[in-house]
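Quick check before the chapter quiz. The format below is the same one you will see on the exam, so make sure you can read both the input and the output lines.
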Amino acid sequence: MLNRELLENQLAEFPLYAYGFINPKTLEFTQRVRFICQSECPMYGKSWACPPAVGSVEECQAKCNGFAHCLMIATITEVSDISDIQESLATRGEHEDLTDQIADLLRQQGINPYVLSTEACAACERCAYLDGKPCRFPERMHPCVESHGINVIPAMEELGIPFISGENLVTWVSLLLFTDEK
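Here is the expected output.
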């Protein structure tokens, strides 16, 4: 079982904007978010971490709903120009590192989280998906939240976490889904 007090003490040591625990069944899944992946993301169809490889929105929802808990973590990064997408994306690495460290905290408690983060996976120079082969590093590959069709804004509102946008601030969000029964 998760020692939540220990985890929360550990989370307090990280430079997180906010975190909270929610029931995965309260996450909002929508085709509108998936459409953004399909129409605007250059990684669509090129990675195991992206659609269509992750499955339909309905399949992603069923997978996420199979977990008992979801830990949402959020970080904020300041950039000089919020409209410069390359500058904004360049700040994602720090959030990804934190996500991996927090997933390791859960693993130290015997919990294997399903991690959704902010990227289309950059573990390999060329994704095995393009060659019809299985992922080489499934433990390092984290699908992005949006790939699953998840709108994080309602979950943040449920947790009382304001979504900060504009003013040259980028908000990054990861979801770590898990079941802690042994």
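If your answer matched, good. The CA atoms of residues 80 and 158 lie 30 Å apart.
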